[in-house]
Amino acid sequence: MSNFSQTVNRDNLSLSEQRLQIDYLSSSNLHINSLDGQDIIWGLSQTPKSLPPRYFYDQRGSELFEQICELPEYYPTRTEAKILRQYAQEITQVTGACELVELGSGSSSKTRLLLDAYQALGHEFKYVPIDVSGEMLVESAQQLQQDYPKLDVQGLVGTYEQALDNLTPTTLPSRMIFFLGSSLGNFTQQKCDRFFSQVKAALDVGEYFLLGIDLQKPKHLLEAAYNDSQGVTAEFNLNMLEHLNQRFAGNFDSELFEHWAFYNEQLNQIEMHLRSSVDQTVALAALKLQVEFAAGETIRTEISRKFDLAIMQKELQAQGLNSLAVWTDPKQWFGLFLTQKSQVD
Ligand code: AVJ
User: Fold this and answer.
1) Which of 66, 240, 321, 343 is most exposed by smallest CB count within 10 Å?
2) Which stretches of the chain are DSSP H helices?
3) CA 226 – ligand 1 centroid, Å
4) CA of 63 relative to ligand 1 center, distance in Å
């Protein structure tokens, strides 16, 4: 891996098989790191308080998210999977032989729909999963290798930003970066714009970006999806506090916080919060941080924006990512864009 950027420290972990390599981008594998956690200090000192959604995804959080994807109320995963299943073959035909770079790969379960189609095409291909949860990444990469004997997997553990900045030039004819499940919804408009330009910088002219986004729909459907009857989403939300405790020597008592999720119709976004049920002070020793909460005060842990298909198409276009195809389901609940980096910047 000597051709990777020298500014990033990597602890390379070569797993037994050559076709599987996982690299840890600096700070993502360390429990305590001088840079890690600055975003927490910042978020908890704001009014209102907030925490970055990437801290949902420790091993437990990644497992809980997988459970969310199976919930009857959580329509995005299965709606997107249906669209992918329907158009996977068309995607492979458009892109041809490809390096597949997945941002936020999680358990890689939807990825299989694409891998199946690429495998059927018969060209060489390679899978580059990127995730902040190293445990999840290693586990699913190993599973994929068993199921796809010819597949090369080269995973990166780190944030999207770190990984996009550290992709090596592909040896295959083309690259497709894909970002599924509407994880884009976690980004503010400003972060979206920055993200798109980073995606574009990681692609050559003519290469591809596949994007899945959740679309605007009636409030009751959205609110049900983030307040499921089994309480899995509540557990997922509260687990962020356990993750912070572990990672930063904290003393959050998750019993003293409550899950709260609602649809903000002005901003077209679900907001998830954790509400303190009492006056309390919490410490994160590793960050030398003490935070006071008033009873009823909330921490916003996530925004999940809901998009408009036509507006998103224009935004992508404005960023130099031309839509080759826009697919949706019959109810127009979810959208999938296949875009191509255009000639002119
Ligand atoms: C992974 C960001 C797409 O916003 O729907 C699911 C995360 N949060 N339930 C989403 C999530 C609560 C999910 N994303």
Assistant:
1) 343
2) 38-44, 59-70, 75-95, 111-121, 134-147, 160-165, 189-201, 219-225, 232-248, 309-318
3) 8
4) 13
